[in-house]
Amino acid sequence: MADTETSVSARSPLAGHAARFAAATRRSGGAVRLAELPYLAQIDVRLDPKGPAADAVGLALGFPLPTQPNTVVHGGGSSALWLGPDEWLVVGRPGTRAELEGRLREAVGDEPAAVVDISAQRTALLVAGPRSRDLLSHGCALDLHPRSFGAGRCAQTLLARAQVVLAVRDELKPGFWVLVRSSFAGYLGDWLLDAATEYTGAV
């Protein structure tokens, strides 16, 4: 059975922005690409990074949880983003939240750990293209130059005063994920469209 979030009756927080994102992407001539990535599985994991639960989760995912601050690891259709010394956000494909949560819960077993499905809390935006860093820099204080924020990096930060989790996609898929709380998604979508007018020529 499909996850509730991906059912026909479900509506993602930025469904109403899809046509505007597509139009802005088209008008930019490839300079920027804006799109929502709806219904991604998002599982918050808290555990001791040096304990057996961390090793078990790594085996379940097929790659170890990142232990270096503000880094992200991709593999096997999932990604793990470092959010704190004992906290990670595991992101998976749409429709996999129940399976992913169950797999991680089974992995930690009786070890002291927390595995919580927070998929409905945030939606994800894709910001890609050669000018994507310039676009995000309009509203983000981080140094987004590749030497400082390149492949394998993520951060909890502010974008246009909205709290987001910003992550660089893997090297084969240039661009950024912007994970934003659903209640702020419309505001941030409007801001991105406005900031992108420099590259789209829209008025």
From TrEMBL:
InterPro entries: SoxG, TrmE/GcvT-like
Entry coiled-coil feature ranges: none
Pfam family, one: SoxG
Name listed for the protein in its UniProt record: Sarcosine oxidase subunit gamma
